[in-house]
Automatic annotation (TrEMBL):
Residues 14-249 form the ABC transporter domain. It is found in: Cell membrane. Keywords: ATP-binding, Cell membrane, Ion transport, Iron, Iron transport, Membrane, Nucleotide-binding, Transport. It comes from the Bacteria. The keyword Iron applies. One of its GO terms (molecular function) is ATP binding. It is a peripheral membrane protein. Gene3D superfamilies: P-loop containing nucleotide triphosphate hydrolases. Its main location: membrane. This is ABC transporter ATP-binding protein.
Length: 276
């Protein structure tokens, strides 16, 4: 458990302090405490239904804790007006739904809503933000099409563009590579890595352990609503930890490209056989 009085905790832009999160009175996340290191590429990993996406929803204020609090920039996130939260962090939810008939450009432009007011209407800066977001996600050629006629992978990239158009320096991404083929997954992960290198703090829920190991600077491993390990990839992604969290028989070797951990599942084994 992180020390809330430590310098790291004091400098964290986003942290959870003993939060519990529930759906329909069923507690999913149990008194969890963690800090998101500023400037990090943090990836949350764990088996299905372990609380990864629930934690991200708590971080974004989509789900209010039944106990504890989420702190954003030194204040309880619950104390901010909604627009102020949206100016400080951008969220890509797991299952986003676009209005019927909306064009790609109009959807991405909705990322500029937090910056609008009675005194500040659509501007050249907004136009440039939308254009840059479309270019960054490779969706400029889709700008005039309606979202409902796109493939799943195209839609996912358009939703990422909308989040980028917010131009926040804190991004929360729930399974951002869903529906994408391998090439587009890598393309998007490289984009996130570039944004992180430019100074943005990124928190992502990922299913692909090797994407997590290759791109993350900080990993949070969850099991049954609690954190079982967190730290650098080489500290968290070990063969023993992967087996503990996922019930997967595996070996971890050095990634031939990065030198970091690379998870290789073993054949002919199952959770039942391993007693998990």
């Amino acid at each position: 458990m992180p020390d809330l009085d430590s310098p790291a905790a004091a400098s964290a832009r986003l942290r959870a302090e003993r939060i519990s999160l529930s759906y329909d009175r069923t507690e999913i996340v149990h008194e969890l405490t963690t800090d998101i290191p500023p400037g990090s590429f943090t990836v949350i990993i764990g088996a299905n239904a372990c609380g990864k996406s629930t934690l991200l929803r708590g971080f974004s204020r989509l789900l209010s804790p039944s106990r504890g609090e989420v702190v954003l920039d030194g204040r309880s996130i619950a104390s901010y007006p909604a627009k102020e939260v949206a100016r400080r962090l951008g969220l890509l939810p797991q299952s986003a739904v676009a209005p019927d008939g909306i064009t790609v450009t109009d959807l991405v432009a909705r990322g500029r809503y937090p910056h609008q007011s009675l005194l500040r209407q659509w501007s050249d800066d907004d136009e440039a933000a939308v254009r840059d977001a479309l270019e960054a996600t490779g969706t400029s050629d889709l700008a005039g099409r309606t979202v409902d006629e796109l493939s799943g992978g195209q839609r996912q990239r358009v939703w990422v563009a909308m989040v980028l158009a917010q131009q926040t320096d804190l991004l929360l991404l729930d399974e951002p590579t869903t529906y994408l083929d391998v090439a587009h997954q890598v393309e998007l992960m490289e984009l996130f890595a570039e944004l992180n290198a430019q100074g943005r703090t990124i928190v992502a829920v990922l299913h692909d352990l090797n994407h997590a190991a290759r791109y993350a600077s900080h990993i949070i491993a969850m099991r049954e609503g609690r954190i079982v390990a967190e730290g650098a990839p080489e500290q968290v992604i070990t063969s023993e930890r992967v087996h503990e969290v996922f019930g997967l028989a595996n070996v971890v070797i050095a990634d031939p490209v990065t030198g970091g951990p690379l998870v290789v599942p073993l054949r002919g084994t199952s959770k039942k056989e391993k007693g998990s």
